[in-house]
Amino acid sequence: MSRRLHPPLEGDFGCIGHISRPHSSSPRSRSSSRPAGPGTRSVTKRPPRSRASAAGAVRGIAVVTGDPLKGIENLSGDYSSAAKLFGYRFNCSGRAVQVRKAPSLTSVDVRFVGNASRIAIVNAIGSDPAGVSVAPQPDGSFRVSLASRSDQPDGNSFGPKALGFVIVAL
Predict the structure, then answer these.
(1) Looking at the domain assignment, is residue 89 inside a domain?
(2) Fewest CB within a 10 Å sphere: which of 10, 108, 111, 158?
(3) Cα dihedral across residues 136, 56, 61, 18: positive or negative
(4) Which domain holds residue 28?
(5) 7 vs 10, 17, 47, 133, CA distance in Å?
(6) What is the Cα–Cα distance from 14 to 117, expressed in whole angstroms?
(7) DSSP string, 107-131
(8) Distant-in-sequence, close-in-space partners of 130: CB < 8 Å, separation ≥ 6
(9) Residue 55 resides in a domain
(10) What secondary structure does DSSP assign to 46-100, as a single string?
């Protein structure tokens, strides 16, 4: 049975999901305007079911790489949803995923517009070991801070570094 997806709903819980209605060929989709004949059953119209996001469901994903010509360290201080700043992006609200350089020197803010998720998991992209933290911000965005091996001669220093990352909002 094929299903059509309709525009997302928004609410206090972030992405509630999509309204899913059975395809019109389904006997559950609508009442028949024709009288029921012998051996058939009358079917009443059911209200659409919403599929609420289950606890732990992915509500947004962004692979933040920065502009390939400028690097992630040269992000603007204003939010942008330009495709070239992302390797991949998804927001269950169907609205924009935005990124900007945070007011601090080495952090990045990511915002999933219309998505009230307050939990996120982040991982750095790269071949060197890295540490990363994520914290929800008052404007609904997530602040991502990264650190990695620094370019110090001893090679044992760990400090702030501009790296690409993947963020998953739950």
Answers:
(1) yes
(2) 158
(3) negative
(4) 3-50
(5) 10, 9, 16, 33
(6) 6
(7) EEEEEETT-----EEEEE-SSS-EE
(8) 124, 146, 147, 148, 161, 163
(9) no
(10) -PPEE-PPPTT---EEEEE--BTTTBGGG--SS-B--GGGEEEEEETTSS-EEEE
Q: How far is CA 157 from CA 95, 151, 152, in A?
A: 40, 8, 6
CA atoms of 52 and 15, how far apart (whole Å): 8
Same domain, 108 and 66: yes
Structural domains counted in the chain:
2
- Same-domain pairing of 86 and 164: yes
pLDDT band at 85 (very low <50, low <70, confident <90, very high): very high
pTM equals 0.68
Region 37-46: what's the mean pLDDT?
A: 55
**DSSP 8-state secondary structure symbol assigned to residue 28:** T
- 80 contacts: CB under 8 Å, gap ≥ 6: 98, 99, 100
Tokens representing 89? Answer: 């992006």
Token output for 71: 């690097």
Q: Does any domain span residue 151?
A: yes
Reported as a single tens digit per residue, the pLDDT across 110-138 is 999 999 899 999 999 988 889 999 999 99
From the CB of residue 13, how many other CB atoms can be counted at a distance below 10 Å? 13
- Shared domain for 81 and 162, answered yes or no, is yes
